[in-house]
Design a protein that fits this description.
Blueprint (H helix, E strand, L loop, with lengths): L18 H11 L3 H22 L3 H25 L10 H5 L6
Helix pairs in contact: 1-2, 1-3, 2-3
Length: 103
């Protein structure tokens, strides 16, 4: 009996070679660049170091995909905030899943 899945998962296509540079330019042009650019650089640096150690580009691809998602959804999030969305009726996460165990 094999432990392999019947249908192998298809990986999303790899970002273009210059995708990170273009993405960094988009972040620099964004209104939140003063907060986001250092965060992107930190994420990219950590992924780059992991890739150097493992010879695997997956971490770099994940950083690019995550930040593309953040930039693509930023206008919708900003519109929601500007619309005066009231979230005071929210439920604390601890009430839903319980308190986190102390380590």
């Amino acid at each position: 009996m094999s432990a392999q899945p019947l249908h192998p998962q298809e990986l999303p296509p790899a970002p273009a070679p210059a995708a990170a540079a273009r993405l960094r330019g988009r972040i620099a042009a964004h209104a939140a660049a003063d907060r986001w650019l250092p965060a992107f650089d930190r994420d990219w640096g950590a992924a780059l170091e992991e890739s150097r150690q493992t010879f695997d580009l997956t971490a770099l691809h994940e950083v690019v995909r995550a930040w593309q998602g953040r930039l693509d959804t930023a206008p919708a999030v900003a519109a929601l905030i500007v619309s005066g969305f009231e979230d005071a009726d929210g439920v604390a996460l601890e009430d839903v899943i319980g308190a986190r165990p102390r380590q």
